[in-house]
Amino acid sequence: MKISEIMTTSAVTITSDKSVSHAAEQMKEYSTNYLVVVDHGELMGIVTSRHVGSAHPNRIVADAMDEPPMRMAPERNIWDAHRLLHEGEGELLLVMNQEEWVGVVTKEAIQMKLAEFLDPLTGLYRAPYILDIGEKWLEEKKPFHLMFIDVNDFGLINKQYGHPFGDDVIRSFSSLLSSLMEEDSDHVCRYAGDEFILLTTGSEEKAQRWMEAIIQPAEIYKVTVSAAVGHIDGFREPDFFAKTLRDHIAKASLLSTDAKKKKTSLAP
């Protein structure tokens, strides 16, 4: 999802020579917690309620505002915006179409939208999250590992032990997969039912380490549970960037099915 779909296109502006106390009054009057600072039509920065609260009321806005504010193009996705704000410890960013200011997106708006993509059982993001990241990496010609993970005999587990136990299995695997995430380049989602997808731009050694951990049978309430992995190595896969992410997921899914039959993992 692009940030242009959640941004606010109207915002209250203020000039940089106004006092901090005036900025506070403007925020109260317009029921907003930020103001865009514009001088003579030129974008100068952004001032928030945090700035206002930490600066002396008699100081001017120019002394309190963020300059330059964090910026992002409207076609970037909300996960990129989330990472930027997280890394910069910011509250909002300006949406810029080249040098033209076209909107504002707040951290709160991003978090509310991201919450819609969370799987309630596991707390992991759902498929749109991983699709967005993988497609972006393909566009950028950035090689990565894709792992399609399928819990073995999950239908039988549900049938024999009941759906609450099946939910425990899914949660247990989710915890295992989450524990593998080490860097910003690592991503995981619950793709569907008992299927998960991992992406990483990390090393071959990391990918192998992950697969070994995932296929290792685990005891859950005295029941042995295992999973199969289909692995696509974007550093070696022929014509990797000529294919879509859905192509790679489809192939990885077939590899996991083969692995399931052999009760082991498959890597090309």
Automatic annotation (TrEMBL):
Q: Which Pfam families does the entry mention?
A: CBS, GGDEF
SUPFAM superfamilies the UniProt entry points to: CBS-domain pair, Nucleotide cyclase
Where the record annotates domain CBS, the positions are 7-64
- Which keywords does this chain's UniProt record carry? CBS domain
**Residue ranges constituting the GGDEF domain according to the UniProt record:** 142-268
Q: Which InterPro entries match?
A: CBS_dom (IPR000644), CBS_dom_sf (IPR046342), Diguanylate_Cyclase (IPR050469), GGDEF_dom (IPR000160), Nucleotide_cyclase (IPR029787), Rev_trsase/Diguanyl_cyclase (IPR043128)
Q: Which NCBIfam families match?
A: GGDEF
- What is the protein name for this chain? GGDEF domain-containing protein
